[in-house]
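Internal ticket - ligand job 434, 2-acetamido-2-deoxy-beta-D-glucopyranose:
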Amino acid sequence: MTASSSSPSATAILFLFSIFAGVALAQVPAKDRFKYVNQGEFGPFITEYDASYRATPLFGSPYQLMWYNTTPGEFYLGLRMGLRRSESLFRWVWDVNRGKPVGENATLTFGTDGNLVLAEANGRTVWSTGTANKGVVGIKIVPGAGNLVLFDKNGRFVWQSFDHPTDTLLPGQSLRLTGPSKLVSRKSEKENSDGKYSFVVEPKGLALYMAASPKPLPYFNYLGAPFGRLAFTTPSNITFLPEPESDDNFAWELKLVQNNGADILARPKYNASLSILRLQLDGNLVAFTYYEPVDSQAWERTFSFFSDNGILEGCELPSKCGSLGVCKDDMCVACPTPNGLLGWSDSCSSPKDGACKAAAGAAYYKVVGVENFLTKFVKGQTVKLDDCKKKCSADCKCLGFFFWEKESKCWLAPTLGTLNQVSNSSHVAYIKSS
Ligand SMILES: *[C@@H]1O[C@H](CO)[C@@H](O)[C@H](O)[C@H]1NC(C)=O
Ligand SMILES: *[C@@H]1O[C@H](CO)[C@@H](O)[C@H](O)[C@H]1NC(C)=O
Ligand SMILES: *[C@@H]1O[C@H](CO)[C@@H](O)[C@H](O)[C@H]1NC(C)=O
Ligand SMILES: *[C@@H]1O[C@H](CO)[C@@H](O)[C@H](O)[C@H]1NC(C)=O
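stdout (structure tokens):
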């Protein structure tokens, strides 16, 4: 009787013991634990966004984890790319806590349980990897790749920063249909929160979006992809990969690798393994390559999505001419006004920008031979000119509309931006003037 009743509990004790033993085995060794405090002098070098910074010891060439700020007292923990030796700009290529700044004396703790925790000085947790007791035994920044990883005793990545991109893809990093599926631009030089633009992998290809109400507007997608570039025949994930073109290593390729092949973005004629793909503040998608052997100006812009040797022309970038401007050959050449085309400056804007009077009796002025991203990437409605006008007049958020006279195609414009000059004079824009 006694024997049979004690046996199950003995098993339970053994079982519990083995769990504890397992946890004990998976602890972070004392020498690898740390608590970094955000305090002390700022570093002396020039970094992107003119940020001040304090280094942490976490380093994997040429990346280092740092506290940095562009506004006093609002710190972000981010990955800085570049080496001191090169005397070139340092770039911020990943953020731990975008949009959630911490203050002086904030802490980053990597404890026994394998959780990486960012907390305010008063102990309030701001962010963590959520990896407590999941077998994590160490942390590192993978050299070359810039992936911050928490790994288990078999070297498997339990958590990786590659799964949480901000605005930049690093060498070997992927966007997946199942997520993470996008990059989001930074709000401004000063403000490190989500900006207006996103770069997204979708089942039919890659897309660029601008935030708008009621829903984001595409300024690139498969509908207007030249030669089907960055469009998919079957759904695919993508990986940003700099690779030598051939064994002799003369030229390198910056690729977006898909399931069926790859799209080559650029071919730098030197070792371009340290390249990044960035969704910029202005919505352009740009690759920068860091070439270690040179002593100054180690960065080169090796690809620009909206440019002569990119995927679309410079004039197709919605933000190119600020809130309004006519663009030709990569230059903003005119400001359309009710009195005709005037010289362009960055103060050019539509009369209705920011205002919303009673919709009835709205007046418009016409600009001939222009298009913008809407006519290429958004499906227009087939309606008569007067009906298109009425729809815009009834909509307080409508700043004007694009109209193709031959087909009677109408696109209401909640944003105008760059008007790309085209030779076809039946493609026109009507801008609301009152
Ligand atoms: C940060 O902590 C130090 C002590 O380690 C203290 O002297 C300093 O006043 C603290 N700074 C702030 C802004 O709380
Ligand atoms: C994309 O990647 C995810 C995760 O690695 C995988 O499960 C999925 O099958 C991939 N999808 C495609 C279409 O390759
Ligand atoms: C390219 O440069 C990287 C970083 O400096 C280096 O690790 C790699 O070996 C180089 N690759 C080749 C093929 O030379
Ligand atoms: C202008 O575009 C329309 C389609 O909107 C097309 O039917 C017409 O042929 C084009 N005209 C010229 C001169 O390219």
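Auto-summary: Residues 30-163 form a domain with the Agglutinin, subunit A fold (CATH 2.90.10.10). The pocket of 2-acetamido-2-deoxy-beta-D-glucopyranose (ligand 1) is lined by residues 39, 104-105, 121 (CB under 6 Å).
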